[in-house]
């Protein structure tokens, strides 16, 4: 009996398959893989200047000393604008008449300083009961 596999011709193995390649769609030139999303544009020109000044602090640019001076000026202006906005928030606080007896009550019972007791009373429209209740009530409840 003769076997056809022993005829002397080697059986060839199929070539290793190349890795499956998927058809990739070309991406627009504006999209960069792994790039962070750009920040939303801010409202005013001053806000944009402040944002540019803050972002320039992150860059490692050692060759331009004039640029650093300009950036520090812009950063100073941005910080000044922040202080102006904080002052505007302080002006919005309403004036609340606080009784000296209520301050003394909070100081003696809750062992607070006069400044803290006054602040607590103003936050609760001068009501000593509400101020004491909020002070002793846990924040998570």
From TrEMBL:
<dbReference type="InterPro" id="IPR052617">
    <property type="entry name" value="Huntingtin-int_K"/>
</dbReference>
<protein>
    <recommendedName>
        <fullName>Nascent polypeptide-associated complex subunit alpha-like UBA domain-containing protein</fullName>
    </recommendedName>
</protein>
<feature type="region of interest" description="Disordered">
    <location>
        <begin position="1"/>
        <end position="79"/>
    </location>
</feature>
<feature type="domain" description="Nascent polypeptide-associated complex subunit alpha-like UBA">
    <location>
        <begin position="96"/>
        <end position="136"/>
    </location>
</feature>
<dbReference type="GO" id="GO:0050821">
    <property type="term" value="P:protein stabilization"/>
</dbReference>
<dbReference type="InterPro" id="IPR038922">
    <property type="entry name" value="HYPK_UBA"/>
</dbReference>
<dbReference type="InterPro" id="IPR044034">
    <property type="entry name" value="NAC-like_UBA"/>
</dbReference>
<dbReference type="Pfam" id="PF19026">
    <property type="entry name" value="UBA_HYPK"/>
</dbReference>
<feature type="compositionally biased region" description="Low complexity">
    <location>
        <begin position="1"/>
        <end position="11"/>
    </location>
</feature>
<dbReference type="GO" id="GO:0043066">
    <property type="term" value="P:negative regulation of apoptotic process"/>
</dbReference>
<feature type="compositionally biased region" description="Basic and acidic residues">
    <location>
        <begin position="64"/>
        <end position="74"/>
    </location>
</feature>
């Amino acid at each position: 009996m003769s076997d056809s596999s022993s005829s002397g011709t080697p059986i060839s193995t199929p070539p290793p398959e190349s890795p499956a390649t998927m058809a990739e769609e070309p991406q627009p030139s504006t999209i960069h893989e792994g790039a962070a999303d750009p920040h939303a544009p801010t409202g005013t020109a001053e806000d944009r200047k402040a944002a540019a000044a803050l972002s320039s602090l992150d860059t490692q640019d050692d060759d331009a000393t004039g640029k650093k001076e300009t950036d520090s000026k812009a950063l100073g202006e941005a910080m000044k604008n922040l202080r102006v906005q904080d002052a505007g928030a302080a002006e919005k606080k309403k004036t609340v008449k606080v009784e000296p007896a209520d301050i003394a009550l909070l100081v003696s019972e809750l062992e607070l300083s006069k400044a803290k007791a006054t602040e607590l009373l103003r936050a609760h429209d001068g009501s000593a009961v509400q101020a004491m209740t909020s002070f002793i009530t846990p924040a998570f409840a």
